[in-house]
Amino acid sequence: MKPLILVVEDEAAILTLLRYNLERENFRVIEARDGEEALLLAGERKPDLVLLDWMLPLLSGIEVCRRLRRAPQTRGLPIIMLTARGEEGDRIRGLNAGADDYVTKPFSPSELLARVRAVMRRSRPAADAETLRCGDIIMDIAAHKTRRGERDVHLGPTEFRLLRHFLEHQGRVFSREQLLDAVWGADVYVEPRTVDVHIRRLRKALNEPHEDDPIRTVRSAGYALDAMASQYA
Amino acid sequence: MKPLILVVEDEAAILTLLRYNLERENFRVIEARDGEEALLLAGERKPDLVLLDWMLPLLSGIEVCRRLRRAPQTRGLPIIMLTARGEEGDRIRGLNAGADDYVTKPFSPSELLARVRAVMRRSRPAADAETLRCGDIIMDIAAHKTRRGERDVHLGPTEFRLLRHFLEHQGRVFSREQLLDAVWGADVYVEPRTVDVHIRRLRKALNEPHEDDPIRTVRSAGYALDAMASQYA
DNA sequence: TGACGATGTAATAAAATTGTCACGGATTTG
DNA sequence: CAAATCCGTGACAATTTTATTACATCGTCA
């Protein structure tokens, strides 16, 4: 699907110019003439990027920027500010308000498009990050981060691989030997009971005092990560 | 300091013409006769701009362009392609390979100079700059400046590229080997542990005594720049 | 040329992680 | 019920990995 760009600009001429260039480059464009409309559309249409004029009726661009950043729906939405003057002060304020980049008018179409592409490229990785989850446990493979509910969970390398293996095979029971093969590697030899210790460490890191334990012990068989019922908050 | 321009061109007559015009306009000029030499000089002399002929011995202009873009040292170096005909196909390919602008031969000296100035202006500190940010860390690529909060942060060239790479891939963990490839270049060999030292230098430059460290060490995996809970003023 | 900044390496200190054990409670078996 | 297993747990020492420091080199710039 073509990326959707929200252009917030009150001057018709510039609006036309932007629409022309963006659509030629295979973007879809929606327009807002003032700050209020911008906030509304940003929430409703969920654009992939916002081109935001500095000077606007009703709400200044910088204020729109701030509000977009504050709202959970639109936080993280890439924003490029358009401003008439290249004043350093404005620039700093724009960036502080949360803009991702900044282009001064007059601008060349190619320059603007380059910025648009750059910003979109930058904000892409977050989208396709590989994550595993089970109930309120979330693991981000690329970032190497693990969370349970609202808090970050720190895991050692082995615990990380162990949990990852469970997450990739939820509900299934693994014997100690199977886990050693899968997590430690088929060629290393360690005591099977070592698995117990790491299961323990994983549990300790994962479970706060009151929370329930997602790891099920199957006596004389091994361990499993239960796909919990309390999915998706 | 006068801007340094690398002219890559195998026809002596055009070379002379270019040098004459450029030097008259207060640019310094270095010459390369073929693609190999171009890459070498671009890396060694660090020119501010490259004028790159399309047809070259050894390596085509487009290939040179691509390689310049791929190498960490020369990525971001402004490139203007010179092409014999104004064929649309060539132009598209040139721009796709990463050229900033292109000029068709024959060209008038004044036209060429106008393009040169335009491209340089765009990549100069005075002009707009692409910025990368993470929390209160702001990097201005074109100006080659880094700030944290209110203060300027001085980084060596390697630390700059290192931080840039992290900023362009926030949250993701990179092994020492990956960082060497991305920041040092895939062809140079340095000890992986060297990365540690540069991480240290980067941290020292970035973190005042009380501030928290945005760079996360992931044991047995590498390092990551954490996309922190955004703090927009 | 000499001061200077930047860089890569090696050596050493400091942390974090890991595999094992031993003990004791819990569960199953006979 | 007693024996036999099995699992949870805390403590440790060894090992691995990272942080930090010091140093030699190299190119730049006055």
UniProtKB/TrEMBL annotation, chains A, B:
The record places the DNA-binding region at 129-227
- The source's domain of life comes to Bacteria
What's the protein called, per UniProt? Phosphate regulon transcriptional regulatory protein PhoB
Under SUPFAM superfamilies, the record lists: C-terminal effector domain of the bipartite response regulators, CheY-like
Name one process (GO BP) from the record.
phosphate ion transport
Q: Which UniProt keywords apply?
A: Activator, Cytoplasm, DNA-binding, Phosphate transport, Phosphoprotein, Transcription, Transcription regulation, Transport, Two-component regulatory system
What task does this protein carry out?
A: This protein is a positive regulator for the phosphate regulon. Transcription of this operon is positively regulated by PhoB and PhoR when phosphate is limited.
Q: Where is the Response regulatory domain?
A: 4-120
Residue numbers of 4-aspartylphosphate PTMs: D53
Tell me if Transcription is a UniProt keyword of this record. Answer: yes
Q: Where in the cell is it found?
A: Cytoplasm
- Every OmpR/PhoB-type domain range: 129-227
Please give one Gene Ontology molecular function term for this protein.
transcription cis-regulatory region binding
Gene Ontology CC: cytosol; protein-DNA complex
